[in-house]
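Inputs:
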Amino acid sequence: MFKFSDILPFSSSEFYLFIAFSIALIFASKYVLRGKIAYQNIIFTISFLYLILLFPKPIHFITFTLYGFFIFKFLGRKKQMGGIFIVLLYVLPLILMKLTHVIPVFKLEKSLISIIFQIAGLSYATFKMIQIHIDERESDEKISFVNYFNFIAFTPTLLIGPIDRFARFQKNINQGFANLNQENFNKGLEFIMKGLLYKYIFAYAIFTLFINHLDASNGFLYHLSYMYSYLIYLFFDFAGYSLLAMGFGYMLGIQVPFNFDKPFLAQNPKEFWHHWHKTLGDWLNDYFFKPIFKDLTTRKVFTSIQRQSLALFLTFTLMGFWNGFEIHYILSGVLFGIYSMGHNYYAYLCKKNGKDVVFGKLNSTAIKYISIFLMFNSVAFAIYIFSGKLF
Amino acid sequence: MLNNRFFKNTWIYFLLILGYVLLYSVDVEHVIYPSKEGEVKSKVDFVYQQF
Amino acid sequence: MKNFLKYHLLPLILGLFIAFFVAIILVKSPLLLRKNEKTKEVSTTKKLNPNSCLATLVENEKQELELLASLQEKQGITLFGSSELSVDSRFIPFTYLPEKKGIRVNAFGHAFQQNFAIYCQLLALKKSLKNAKVCIILSASWFETEGTNMEAFLEFARPNFLKKIIRDQSISLDVKNYIGEYLFKNSDKIENSSQSINYFINLYKYKNIPFLNEYFFKKWKEFDKIAYKVNATYDKSVLADAVEIDWDKEMEFIQKEFTSKIKSNKIFVNDEYFNQYLKQEDGGFKKGNLLCLPKESNRELEDFKLLVQLLKQEKCKASFVIQSMNPHYYNKLESFNPVLEEIKKLLEKEKLPYLNLFTASKKKYEGGTLTDIMHFGDLGWLKVDEFLYKTYAK
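Outputs:
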C-alpha cells in the first residue's frame, strides 16, 4: 500500500514515517552506536536515502547539487570570472524551469526543458547555492561535498525552506550529536505540534469550510472575502509547513531558523518581511538589496534615497519573478516593491522634516493601530494579486 | 510547575485533537454544506468475460 | 525526561481529555446534525414486462422499480444470477416459463453479481420479501473470489437502496457494520465516495469509539426518505397458456441435439466456444483450475449465509440453484465440496428448496448442462425451469 515515489516533504503519511525512522536512526546512532559513525555522515545518509527512495527525480536533484558544487569549487575562486556571470550560472536552471510555466512549447510535459529542469526544490537549492558561494568562497575552510550536499539537500528544508545559512548550518553539524538532546527534542516536538495544528487544522479548516464554498456570483464581496481568507489560509499553511520543517530539523539536531512570527502585527513593510517568510526576506536583503545598493553607491548614481528606492524596487520585483514568470506573480512583487519604496520615502521625509509627515501629532498608539491596519490590508491585496484570482 | 509553556502546549494538543475529530472524523464540511450525491464509480474497470 | 512529561505527555493527556469532552458535547448536541424531512419519490406508470432480464440497474432509477414490482407481485418469480443470464437459450426461464407455463419470470443481473450485491438489493427492499418467489443461481466460481467486486456492488446496490438501508431502523447495526466493513476495506477502489457510502464507512471505522459511533448512526436522519411507487401492472397478454411438458423426454431430446452438434471435442463444449478459447495447436485443449477459498475464511460464504438469514427472516419463498462447472475442463473442482456441503447443510436446515447441478465428477456430469465451461446450456436451463415450476407452480 505504500507509495515509493513522488513523495514530497510533508505531503503524505509515507514522508512522516520516513522522517520518524530517520529520527530513530539518528538517536540510535548516538545512544546505541555511541557516535561511531560521524554525525554528518548520518545526516548525509538520511538526505540521500530520502532523495533516492521517495523524492521525484532524485538523479536530477543530485546532478544539480553536483553542478552547484562544481561551480563553487572550480569556477568561483577564479578572479577573472565576474560575479554576475557566476550567479547567472547558478540561476540558469531555475530560469529555464520557470519558463516552462509561461512558454507554450516548454509547457508540454514531455518537452526536453520540462523533463530536465522541472525539479522540485530547485529554487530553494539555488538560493542556498548562491548564499554559500557569496559567503564561503573566500573562507579558508574547505567545504567537502558531503557538507555541501547536507546543506543543500537537508530533507526537512529541501522543498520550501526555511532558507538556512551555511555557516549556521555547519555549526550544528560540527556540534554533532550534542544537539540531539532532550531540550531540542522537546522544542522540536512543540514546533511539530504547532505546525500540524496550523497546516492540517487551521489552514485546512479555512480552505474546506470557507474558501471552497465562496460563492463566485457575489462579485465584489466574493473577491473581498477571498482576499482575506486566502491570506489567512496561506499564512497558516506556509507557517505550519515552516514549523514542521523546524521541528523535524531540531529533532535531527539542526536548529532550522524560524520563518514566521506574528506577521500581521507588522507596522511597515520592513517589519513585515522580518516576520513573514523571514529567511527569504533576509536572503533578498543580504544577497540582492545590499549588493545593488552598494554597487549604485560606488557608481555614485542618483541621491541616496533614490538609490535605496531603486534597490528596493528591483529586489521585490525579483522576488515576483522568482515566484514565477506569470503576470500575477510579477505584479505582486512589484506591489511589494512599491510598498517598501513608499514606506522608505515616508521614513526619509519624516527624518528630514523632523516630524511625522502623514500622521502629524496623532498619538503613537493610534498611529500604531492605523499602521497595522494599513499594512495588513496592503499585504492582503498584494497576496490576492499573487493568488492569481484576478488574472 | 504549571507555567505558560505547559498551558500553551495543552492548548495546542487540545485544538489539534478537537480539530482532528471535527474536520477529519465528523467531517463538518459535509455537515455545513451537504452536497448532492453524484454517481459513484469504481476505480477498477473489470473486463467482463465474453458474456 | 521530566520536561517531556511536563510539556508533552501531561498536556497531551489533558488536551485529549478536554478535547474529547468538548467533542462529546458537540456531537451530542443537534448542532452537528442536519434535519432532513425530504421525501424522494420514484415512480413509474410504464407497463411492466413479465418476461424480462434486466442486466443492470445503473441506467435509471425506474429500473429499481422493476425489481420492486417483481418482488411485490407474488405470483411470478424473481430470478437472480450472474453471467449465465446473458446466455442465448430458448429454455432460459424468463423466456421459457412465460411461454410454456404462463408464469411471470423477471431476471436481474449479469457477470460479477454475487451474493453481497444481491443481499444489499433485497435488504433495501426487505419489506416486499414476504411470500415473494425468489430464486438465486449460485456459481462455484463466486467462492474463489474475495466477495462481490466493487464495480458490481455499485452497479446493483444503488444509491437509493443504500439510503433505504440507512434509514431502515429495523436493520440491525451489525448488518450495517458489515456493509461498512466491506466498503471500508475496499475504499481504495471507490472514486468520489458518496455520503451514503461514507455513512457506512464511518459507522464501521468508529465502531469502537462510542460517542462517534452513536453520532454517525444518528446521521440516518440526514438522508432523503425514498418512496417507491409502482403505479403499473404486468402486461399479462405476453403470458401464454400453460402447456403440458414431459420434462424427462424433453431433456433427453435436447441433450442429444446438443451432443450431436458438437464436432470439435468430447468434453461437451459447443464448437464455437471450444475453437475460440480452448483449442490448442497440438490437438489438445486448455484446462483451468477452480481455486475455491477454504470455508473458514470465505467471504462469499459469509455473504451467502447472511442472504439466507435475510430471506428466512422475511419469510420469503426463496430457492437456490447451484450451477455446474464443466469437470472435463476444470481441475480441482472438489475444492468447492466443503463449501457446497456447508451451503447444502444451511439450506436444508432452513428448509429452503435447492437444485444442485454441481459435480466434481466427470462421470456424473451430464453433457449439455452447460453450453461451455461454466454457463448453463439448454439442458441446464430446462432443469432449472423444471425446478422452478415444481417449486413454485405445482
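Remarks. Chain A touches chain B through 14 residues (CB under 8 Å). Residues 97 and 157 of chain A are 20 Å apart (CA to CA).
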